[in-house]
Amino acid sequence: MNFSKIKTILLASMVTLMAASMVLLPEKSFEASVRGLNMWWEIVFPSLFPFFVLSELLIGFGVVKFMGVLLEPLMRPLFRVPGVGGFAWAMGMASGFPAGAKITARLRQEGHLTRDEAERLVSFTNCSSPLFIFGAVSVGFFHNPKLGFLLALTHYLGNFSVGIIMRNFGQKPSSKEKKANKRPLFAEALSALHQTRLKNKKPIGKLVGDAVISSINTLLMIGGFIILFSVINKLLFHMHITAFLARLIEGVLSIFQLPATLSMPAIAGIFEITLGSQMTSQAPEATLMQQVIMASFILGFSGFSVQAQVASILAQTDIRFRPFFNARILHGFLSGFFTFLFWKPFEQRLLSSHSMSVPAFLQKHDIWWENMLLWLKQYGPLFTIFMLLVCIAVYVQTMGAKN
Q1: Burial grade of 16 (CB within 10 A; 0-12, 13-18, 19 or more)
Q2: Residue 331 falls inside a structural domain
Q3: In degrees rounded to 5, what are phi and psi of residue 182?
Q4: pLDDT, tens digit, for every residue of 72-120?
Q5: CB of 150 closer than 8 Å to CB of 342
Q6: How far is 193 from 58, CA to CA, in rounded Å?
C-alpha cells in the first residue's frame, strides 16, 4: 500500500471519527460552535472588516504601489521583498491574523510579487494584533496589563527575526533585485501611483462594492474555520485525545524546564490560539514566567485554526503553504526564547512592586485596550449584522446590473 492510499484512509478515518463524536456529544459540539460564533461576530468581524476593505481600496487606487516605491530601500535589503511588502507588514501587525496573508495573496494576484517574494512576505506579515495581545491575553486572561508590553515586544521581535531568517528562502538575488536597492525618487512614487490608478478602470462605486463583497467573503470563510476548530478542540478534549497528546509532549517541555501542567494548554494552543492562551494563564504549578513563555510560543505558532485560514487564502494563488508553516514554528520558538531572555529586566522594571516607571498606556486608569475589547463585545454583533445586510444589498444590486 503506497503513501497516497494510507493518507486517504487516515483522512477518511479522522473525518468519520469527528462526525461520530459530534453525534455522540451534540451538547458539547453546540457549546463549542456558539463559542466560536461569538468570537467571530463580536471580535473578529468588526475588527478585521475595516482593514480588509481599506486594503482593497488602497491597492485599487495605487496608494500601495506609491508606498512600495518609497519603501523599496528598506524592505529589499532587509527581507528581499518589494517595497509593497511594507504595507502588508504594517496592516498585518495592526489588524492581526490573517490580514497579512490576505494582503499578500492580493498583491501576488496583482503581479506585485513573485512567488518566492510572496512566500517570504507571508511568513512574517501574519501576527497577533495589539488588541488581542493587550486586551484579550494580558488583561482578559492574565489580568495584568503590564504583561502585554512584554508579550507584544517578544511577539513582534520574533516576527521581525523570522523575516530576516526567511530572506534567504528561495532563489538567490538576481542582478535586477540588487539594482533595485538604489533609493527611488519621490517623483517615481507619484508616477507609480498615477499609472496604477489609470490601469484600474473600475468606477469608484464598483471598486468599493467589490472591496466590501471580497472582504465579507473572506471573513465568512474565517468564521467557518473559527467555529470548526472550536468544535474540534472541544471534541478532542472530551475524547481524551488532548490528554493523550499532552502526555507525549511532557518530555519536550522538560527539556525547556517547563512543568508538565503546561502540556494541556500547549496542545490546546496548537489547535486554537485563544483557548490555549486562556488555559496557559490558569495552569497550576507553573510560575508566571513559565506561563508567559508558553503564551508567547502559542501566539507565535498561531494555532492550526489560523493556519487553516491562511492555507485557504493562499490556495487562491500559487503561494505554497509549507514555508508559512515552517515560519510559524520558528516564530513560536523565537518568541518563547525572547520572553525568557527579557523576563528578568522586565520583571525588575515593570512587575516589581517597587518599580514606579510604568508606561502611560499601561496605567490602570487608562487601559484603553480593555475598553476597546469591551466595546467590540457590546457593539460588534450589531456592526457585523449591519455590514452583512449591506453586503447582501450590494450583491443584489451588482447582480441586477449584470442582468
Answers
A1: exposed
A2: no
A3: -65, 145
A4: 888 888 888 888 888 888 888 888 888 889 889 988 988 888 999 999 9
A5: yes
A6: 10
Q: Is 83 part of a structural domain of the chain? A: yes
361-388 b/e with 16+ CB inside 10 Å = b? Answer: ebeeeebebbeebeebeeebbebbeebb
Query: In the chain, how many domains are there?
Result: 1
As given in the structure block, the three cell numbers for residue 394 are 450590494
Q: Is the pLDDT of residue 297 over 90?
A: yes
| Average pLDDT over every residue of 247-252 | 86
The verdict on residue 191 lying in a domain is yes
Residue 213 to residue 182: CA distance in whole angstroms: 39
Task: Indicate if the pLDDT at residue 43 is higher than 60.
Answer: yes
**pLDDT of 336 over the 90 cut:** yes
H/E segment holding residue 100: helix 99-109
- What's the rounded mean pLDDT across residues 391-397? 78
Can you tell me the distance from the alpha carbon of 276 to that of 273, in angstroms, rounded to the nearest whole number? 5
pLDDT of residue 225: 87
Mean per-residue pLDDT of the chain: 82
Residues in contact with 91: Cβ distance below 8 Å, sequence separation at least 6, in sequence order:
51, 55, 99, 100, 103, 125
How far apart are the C-alpha atoms of 117 and 86, rounded to whole Å? 12
With respect to residue 146, please indicate whether it lies within any of the assigned structural domains: no
Mean pLDDT within 319-337: 93
Burial of 340 (0-12, 13-18, 19+ CB in 10 A): middle
Range of the domain at 99: 62-127+169-199
Task: Determine the Cα–Cα distance for residues 272 and 306; give it in Å rounded to an integer.
Answer: 8
The CA-atom distances, in angstroms, between 78 and each of 41, 71, 82 are 37, 11, 10
Compute the average pLDDT of residues 20-47.
Answer: 85
